[in-house]
């Protein structure tokens, strides 16, 4: 019998991501003790009922006591208060990690409160669904998905290796990256697409009733993908934009310029400008498909593209 | 033995949509004679090899001779020249239809050239993939999808009914609508989403090489949906934007205003504004899901939404 990777793990927050990781640990390391902290008793009851928690807490400090690993799985806006609350209760040699979608701000908010001898290994699994809460999780969520770790330069390499192993046990491929580079890449692959999806669905919400009804009815033609993206957790996404402001505003600025240029081309009837761009964008798609066929999960594309 | 819905059908253009409809007709009306017109001999050879055409033409006028139904399946920008070319060759009592994603411009470009006694029933199947050409088609493409018909007020009701039956044979649900209303609804459900997807993928294309490489690598987090949409046929989409200019510019103007308001909220750190919108957009998603569960195909959503 091998000893578990971490003997005691504390989850602060147990939504979609936290509960999915807890399910993985139940499978791979059944001997691990899992403590769960949540603000609402209902969430804790659910986590207990689902067999995801051995002990339930509303106080983060109580939850992390004796934990070998602390996984912060709340919206990013709560991190600073959590770090302050658990600071004095962390055991020497403990490892703290998280699953947030922004990494520089997380280091800014958490690192100053961690005592010497506690390692911080910020993490971001590139996986999820538009559903929220502990009942939405499942153990296969991370399989064939990337997990990016952004440990600050002086982080204990052994802590990084162990957190990496945790994610590889979940079926993920682990990549190490600088926090600010992560935030820049994710601003374009994830944060801007979400902002745009929220915007366009919001624009549709403001249409007259009968048009809105038909937009919903005929959503198969592209819009439906946007409604799925725009159904993601509102607080989580508010905190992402509040905490990756610079990178999001930079990429949003470039996007707006490009969109304005297309608007101008449409108004002037400059078909060549449009066709040139529409041809150029196929390259990136080929890159995405090639990459995925070589490396990582392949899904069947959705089929609704006749304008 | 029942007689076929249309004894002789002529396809002008045989790409994804045309070839899929031809496949349906081969199944449901094997006695129907199918003529196909395309500009390139290679496309015609493919259509013959796939068993989709009984006769192949490069001249549209020759193709439509004796046809009971003419289905125009080219990019919209070619319609006017096609209508002029076939005008004198159409047989009295023939029905002309199409599959284009814009309907007012199509009526403007085609109707003036059709002789008395020929009915025009403009159509738009809300189905497709990002793939193009006769080999990309398949008979199931239209199953459980909408087809919108936009016949001008004075169109022969019998012609409308027969075109409707053709699509119901393909497994579609048929809806009749005014052309300008169609164009306004599709501008938001389809044309704006495509324009945005092309733009954001174009913005990514212009990034430095190393960031671009990582955008492709980590595309699972939202961006990948956009790359799929932005891989659609460039000429078809150029023509859509050139021919639905007013509706697209109107909805694009609203979208840009809304996006600018969000940009301002991010810059000022106004989290409440973001959260309020992100909560409101969930309503439309529920509408989309409810509608689809009641009426039409349900697909499993993609699963990559953790920021």
Automatic annotation (TrEMBL), chains A, B:
Q: GO molecular function terms here?
A: NAD+ binding; prephenate dehydrogenase (NAD+) activity; prephenate dehydrogenase (NADP+) activity
Q: PROSITE patterns in the record, alphabetically?
A: PDH_ADH
Q: Identify the Pfam families for this entry.
A: PDH_C, PDH_N
Reaction catalysed by this chain?
prephenate + NAD(+) = 3-(4-hydroxyphenyl)pyruvate + CO2 + NADH
Segments forming domain Prephenate/arogenate dehydrogenase: 7-296
Q: Which domain of life is it from?
A: Bacteria
Q: Does the keyword Oxidoreductase apply?
A: yes
EC number(s) recorded for this UniProt protein:
1.3.1.12
Cite the entry's keywords alphabetically: Amino-acid biosynthesis, Aromatic amino acid biosynthesis, NAD, Oxidoreductase, Tyrosine biosynthesis
One GO process term, biological-process aspect: tyrosine biosynthetic process
Under which pathway is this protein filed? Amino-acid biosynthesis; L-tyrosine biosynthesis; (4-hydroxyphenyl)pyruvate from prephenate (NAD(+) route): step 1/1
**UniProt keyword Chaperone, yes or no:** no
Instruction: Describe the family membership recorded for this protein in Swiss-Prot or TrEMBL.
Output: Belongs to the prephenate/arogenate dehydrogenase family.
Its name, as the record gives it, is: prephenate dehydrogenase
